[in-house]
Amino acid sequence: MLLKTNAVVLKQRKFGESDAIVTLFAKKVGKIQAVAKGSKRPRGKYSVGTQPFCYGEFVLFKGRDLYQISQVDLKHSFYKLRENVIKLTYASYILELTESIITEGQTNNRLFHTLIKCLSIISNMDKEYDTIIKAYELKLLMYAGYKPEIDICVHCANLNTGKFKFSSREGGLLCKDCFGIDPYALQISNVTINVMKYLMDTDLTQISRLKIKPNILKELNKIVKQYIHTHVDKDKFKSLELLESL
Ligand SMILES: [Zn+2]
Predict the structure, then answer these.
(1) What pLDDT is attached to residue 43?
(2) What is the pLDDT of residue 94?
(3) CATH number of 2-76
(4) How far, in Å, is the centroid of ligand 1 from the Cα of 176?
(5) CATH of 79-148+184-245 given 1.25.40.340, 1.20.1440.120, 2.30.30.210, 3.40.980.20
(6) Which residues contact 179 (CB under 8 A, 6 or more apart)?
(7) Structural contact between residues 118 and 134, judged by C-beta atoms closer than 8 angstroms
(8) DSSP states of 55-66 as a string?
(9) DSSP letter string over 69-105?
(10) What's the CA-to-centroid distance between 226 and ligand 1, angstroms?
(11) Percent of the chain, pLDDT > 70?
């Protein structure tokens, strides 16, 4: 069975002497593994188009266990992501996080388009990636079904106490009366709540022109990190560790 679909390469690993297994986020079938025959040979047919970040139209043949790539029509390699190590590491984190959240065989068009847009925006930036990364993290969580509740108290539905905390475990805001149910709940200011809403609801292109203030960003970083850690089944992100060591 042949399948033609747009897809982004999330990951590539060597398979045997000269082949590779690539993890694709495909528009028509979600996350899949596919063999790229001969892609590890210097002039292999698929050595171009099966590297991480590559976005193109793939023709896939469904074998017994795995898909096999039979053709790639490259639309964008996002080569500018490789211009500097910080940019590349942020972009690698985007792929790593996406790969760990999406599920095999499940389509997610909104997320697919958001990922491509995000890679395209980052590839044209040269500094201050934090705001766009936070926006992508929140949109990814939202589109993958992990949207945090930030309109009302997630426990008692109270919407007007003036002061909230953020509980990753409970999945959103806790009002003053409910602080006690999660001892790990984090401080969250009303400004940060509004910034979170903005990042979730606004288009990435518009967000890319903004910069979150350092103190808000610091609070938001802590919250998003804890939230991802609680809801994503992955302990460590190699790219994040690298970023923290740079
Ligand atoms: Zn409450």
Answers:
(1) 67
(2) 97
(3) 2.40.50.140
(4) 7
(5) 1.20.1440.120
(6) 165, 185
(7) no
(8) EEEEEEEE-SSS
(9) EEEEEEEE--GGGGSSHHHHHHHHHHHHHHHHHS-BT
(10) 20
(11) 97
Q: 61-112, pLDDT tens digit by residue?
A: 998 888 999 999 999 999 999 999 999 999 999 999 999 999 888 999 999 9
Q: What are the boundaries of each domain within the chain?
A: 2-76, 79-148+184-245
Q: How far is the CA of 179 from the centre of ligand 1 (A)?
A: 8
Q: How far apart are CA 32 and CA 231, in angstroms?
A: 22
| Residue 38 phi, psi dihedral angles, 5° rounding | 70, 10
How close is the Cα of 64 to the center of ligand 1, in Å?
52
Nearest by Cα to 195 from 207, 178, 181: 207
Q: What is the pLDDT of residue 243?
A: 82
Two tokens, residue 214: 């350092």
